[in-house]
Amino acid sequence: MKLHIGIDDTDSPKGMCTTYIGALLYRELSRLGEPLDLPRLIRLNPNVPYKTRGNGAVAMTFEVEEELIPEIKDIVLFYVNQLADLEDENTNPGVVFLEGEIPEELREFSLRALREHVTVEEAEEAARRAGAEYFKFKLGRGIVGALAAIAYPFKHFTYELLAYRKPENWGTPRKVDRESVFEMDRLFYPFTYDNVDPYKRSVLIAPHGKDPVLVGIRGIDAGKVLQAFEIVRFEEPVALYQLYRTNQGTDDHLTFKKIGELKPYDSAVVRGIVVKPYWEKGRHVFFELEDETGRIRVAAFEPTKKFRNFVRKLLPGDEIIAAGGVKEHDGVLTLNLEKFYPVKLAPKIEYRKPKCPSCGGTMKSKGDYLKCKKCGHRMPKKLIPVEMPRDLEKKIYEVPPDARKHISRPLVLPGGEDKILEALIGMHKTVPSSR
Ligand code: ATP
């Protein structure tokens, strides 16, 4: 009998990680049943407000003897109860079990949880219809992610190898040899990606929080991810490591929408015209984008760093394709940019003063007149329009790795441009809102 197990919402900024519980359980349960795949790390809608970091949930599937199922369920619930950070007000774990095949309807629920907002009640209803058993700890919000992770229909996938620390080291600085990570990057990038930030010269595989993760190595080839891990040197013990199959780096959250359809929590690709000059508030850069159905504010927030410079080059009249997540910011619906592509650039016109017609000298503005600095010649102020080069290229711009959503596909990977290209050549389908 196939047994699917989903777990979510066990961690808080103070500690724990659902993948750690998943890795322990995968090891433990593999003694009782036959794993049918690697455990799965499923990133759901990156725009939901409840997430601790990357809105990740974990699922795994085993072929098991029917009489062992109660014991397996007890083990899973015991681990979650023991290890989840239940004291944190925002940690509301959920565990889901489903026996047999995944119903098609549940696949659709999973895609909704990837792209929209789903309530706990909707998850309960979907679980009941699918014949899944769910367990809620506290508010039990985790059943949304747990159920969605079980049924996630992989279209594309990548891998992440997660290595964990000994509990006595949790909360202390991670001892990962920097040079060995740069060496690993030289050997394996882009088969493993987001290893380092070459501009800041920083290591990206090690997080900074109090969670049990020592490093996470992401890649498109399972073998290369494992080889890359061999290269990295640690100055603290590795307690455990586990390779996950994941929807990270797939862009599968993005669907093409018209601007008028956008609602909070959507992840979308839109095509429109920049309607007025950009403006800045704090260190965030904003502009407005319009299509025939509506207008939306678009933001490149401070953490996107140098990416903001490209956004500042956009001018009213530019036609662009923009991908990102929709959220309310200061009460205004805002598309938080992940990638953009300039389809058509409006001409950039600057008005210059002419040279003096009598001596060729430089003219100076004097109210409605121009006066030559050299010979004093005066003439009505008539400026000459000059078309300036636009310093935006016809290419896709993306946010830097440390500002990128886990689920966004980096441009360096094959297919990183696909969602934008689909919108460009009109291959996309507009996805009707399901609410
Ligand atoms: P991780 O740290 O593992 O990357 P996370 O900690 O950022 O993930 P969680 O702590 O799992 O995120 O919190 C996310 C919560 O949001 C979970 O309770 C999950 O069930 C819920 N959730 C996930 N997707 C949706 C959605 N589309 N709509 C509503 N709730 C969702």
Automatic annotation (TrEMBL):
GO cellular component, one term: cytoplasm
Catalyses which reaction(s): cytidine(34) in tRNA(Ile2) + agmatine + ATP + H2O = 2-agmatinylcytidine(34) in tRNA(Ile2) + AMP + 2 phosphate + 2 H(+)
Domain TiaS-like TCKD span(s) in chain numbering: 5-137
UniProt keywords, alphabetically: ATP-binding, Cytoplasm, Ligase, Nucleotide-binding, tRNA processing
Gene3D superfamilies recorded: 2.40.50.1010, 3.30.70.2200, 3.90.600.20
Chief localisation class: cytoplasm
Record carries keyword Coiled coil: no
Domain of life per record: Archaea
Domain TiaS C-terminal zinc ribbon: 354-392
Keyword ATP-binding: yes
Segments forming domain TiaS FLD: 140-253
NCBIfam families according to UniProt: tRNAmod_TiaS
Role: ATP-dependent agmatine transferase that catalyzes the formation of 2-agmatinylcytidine (agm2C) at the wobble position (C34) of tRNA(Ile2), converting the codon specificity from AUG to AUA.
Protein name as it appears in the record: tRNA(Ile2) 2-agmatinylcytidine synthetase TiaS
Gene: tiaS
